[in-house]
Design a protein that fits this description.
mainly alpha, two-stranded antiparallel sheet, 2 strands, 1% strand
């Protein structure tokens, strides 16, 4: 039987294809733009102009330098030029002082700050999100599930500035008074606030993974005499491990790239420290705080784009691992395909 041609289906198909292509093209263009703005920091510094090569210059009674003094002067000029530019030693340093006579672009404190805040956020968000998803999928009554799931997912739509404001005004004061901390804004407060933004992501993906576990596994476990809790913890949860692992990885990516919450709640001090209650400065907060004030095309401007490139690569890698490795390969393995 010949399929009937319908203009509405044809136009809808082409519209969806065009939308997907445009979205993909925009992602590629953003990728190219970010890395193009990063490249100048890897280009060699502009050569120092040698006045003697331009010919004999007119003097006004200046001192005549010896060859050794000229060599020392050229060496000093090269050293100053190198310090003003970006070198591997400069980027690998432990000091972030982009505005000074000798700018320091050390990325170590920014990377440490991002990892520290993300780790705290995941330590709080992962257990709460996974256990909430397990309760919703396996134990909650139907009316409770219909209320609990949308209520938690609404948190994902909260503007991050609202969560940051809550952390700045309420959470920071409460934690400082409760633990007698020296610094009101620190990595712990930032990580705890950040977990509020990560929980809905982990909850949603974990709940979908748990709900996708075949009912035959649950029924077989209950038929063998296992309790509901034993079935949930020893049968359902292990079967949903690939999806839960993907949820945690995506949560780490969300925490690592968040800007507004960490900008408002971490204290923004570029320090390298293992103390969880000291202020930190994250990479995303640095971009958010300084990008609007730098001179276009300057070294500081390019270094901020380099930080953006690192964030882009990190989150892209995590998403790729979650999608390709965990969701596709591991889930196929557990399903026996």
């Amino acid at each position: 039987m010949k399929k009937r041609f319908r203009w509405s289906e044809f136009l809808a198909e082409k519209l969806i294809t065009a939308t997907a292509f445009i979205s993909f093209a925009f992602i590629i263009l953003i990728f190219i733009f970010v890395f193009r703005e990063t490249l100048p920091i890897f280009s060699p510094p502009e050569p120092v102009v040698n006045v003697e090569e331009l010919g004999e210059q007119e003097t006004y009674g200046d001192l005549v330098l010896s060859d050794a003094e000229k060599a020392a002067e050229e060496k000093e000029k090269s050293k100053v030029a190198a310090e003003e530019g970006v070198t591997v030693e400069n980027l690998a340093g432990e000091r972030w002082q982009p505005v000074s006579s000798k700018p320091k672009y050390g990325l170590i404190p920014l990377v440490v700050g991002s990892l520290k805040v993300s780790l705290i956020a995941i330590l709080f968000a992962a257990p709460i999100g996974i256990l909430a998803a397990l309760f919703t999928a396996a134990f909650a009554p139907k009316w409770g599930k219909e209320m609990l799931k949308p209520a938690i997912e609404i948190l994902a739509g909260f503007p991050s500035v609202v969560i940051g404001f809550f952390a700045l005004v309420v959470l920071a004061t409460f934690i400082q008074d409760a633990f007698g901390l020296e610094y009101r804004l620190n990595a712990f407060v930032g990580g705890l606030a950040l977990s509020l933004a990560v929980i809905p992501i982990i909850f949603t993906i974990s709940e979908d993974a748990i709900a996708a576990v075949p009912k035959s596994l649950t029924e077989a476990s209950l038929a063998l005499g296992a309790t509901k809790w034993q079935t949930a913890l020893k049968v359902v949860l292990p079967a949903a491990t690939p999806g839960i692992f993907a949820a945690v990885i995506l949560g780490i990516g969300r925490a690592f790239g968040e800007t507004m919450i960490v900008l408002m709640a971490t204290g923004n001090a570029a320090l390298v420290s293992a103390d969880l209650f000291e202020p930190v400065r994250t990479m995303s907060a640095t971009i958010g705080a300084e990008m609007a004030e730098v001179v276009f095309g300057e070294t500081h401007y390019n270094v901020l784009f380099a930080i953006g490139s690192i964030l882009f690569l990190f989150t892209f890698t995590l998403n790729a691992i979650a999608e390709i490795f965990v969701r596709q390969r591991l889930m196929k393995k557990f399903k026996g395909n």
